[in-house]
Amino acid sequence: MSEANHPRRVLQVFSSLDRGGAEQVVMNWYRKIDREQVQFDFVVEERCEEYAHESEIRSLGGRIYRVQRPISNVFGYIRQWNRLLESHPEWTVVHAHHTSPAFIFLTLARMKGRRTIAHSHTAGGRSTAKDVLKRFARWPLRYIASDRMACSPDAARWMFGQKQVQIVPNGIDVESFRFSSERSQILRAQHELGDGIVIGHVGNFRVVKNHRRILDVFKEVTSRAADARLVLVGDGGLRREMEIYAEGLGIYDSVRFLGVRSDIAELLGMFDVMVFPSLYEGFGVSVVEAQAAGLPVVMSDTVPKNVVVSRHVRSLSLNASNVVWAEALLADARSIESREEQCDLVKNSEFNIVQSLGEVERTYRGER
What we know:
Blueprint: E1 8-13, H1 21-32, E2 38-45, H2 54-59, E3 64-67, H3 74-87, E4 91-96, H4 102-111, E5 115-120, H5 129-138, H6 141-144, E6 147-150, H7 153-160, E7 166-167, H8 181-190, E8 198-202, H9 211-224, E9 229-233, H10 239-249, E10 255-259, H11 264-268, E11 273-276, H12 285-292, E12 297-300, E13 313-316, H13 322-332, H14 339-347, H15 353-364
Parallel strand pairs: 1-2, 1-4, 2-3, 4-5, 5-6, 6-7, 8-9, 8-11, 9-10, 11-12, 12-13
């Protein structure tokens, strides 16, 4: 087969391949993209033997390569990247989602004539010394990358300042989230949720997702609705700490910790309302998914407002009391008459993956 008949190979660079927001976005692209025209390979750090998305990536024709963490040996990290880029001239585009060390590998890639993309998926960070150092490391990307992408204007400003940035909203496969009453009843029975209100959250157990606040708010909810249940989907370093915290609050038996799941679209159907009190977000794809599933959402005012499609999204200050948050969740739960119709609002919005994927494909082909 001639080179012209091979698909264009794009290298996606992540720190891991778990079910985080950025990883889910790229996997949504990968499932929908014409893989006879464009194929993805992935570079990740050596953090575990098998990441959540690995088997699916291989089934779609992708290849996965591992590099050491730069903090352990920066010179070894540079050598590994040099070898990878030399060994794979077919990588015409290097797309960085893991941005704190990206100034290293994007510089190397650009020196070898590759198109380079730095992609901002967040709009904030903490003020710890480690996070300040990471942000400083990202600063050169506004000059190094040949293309700059962001999931929202807030995320663009946070990483790239006033530089020109291509905004690519995080698209989802909308139809997969369409509500099914029958499926909802089956899942609620499987997870023993009863007939009370079910509050849900999807997100890895990291500080930014504010799980401690979720549990505090749910404690207030149970004082008003004893049969309410909380479902937390995701995993991460803080999960065990949050389990212990729930036990201390006396609400553990009313909370379901489901861990990493591949059936998010189905699980959203068994919720009555989504809670999303993130400390900051570049986008908030879970809020878009919740709307596609016909859910009312109570989110923090730190989440970018451009994710709002439905009128059933309430934005609250993180300074508001737990009582205010609890009363909002109880008021909004089950407030939508036709959850199925809400899906169409998202389907006709910029968050339909058909639209966002087209933008990405044009960039990969060099048409932007």
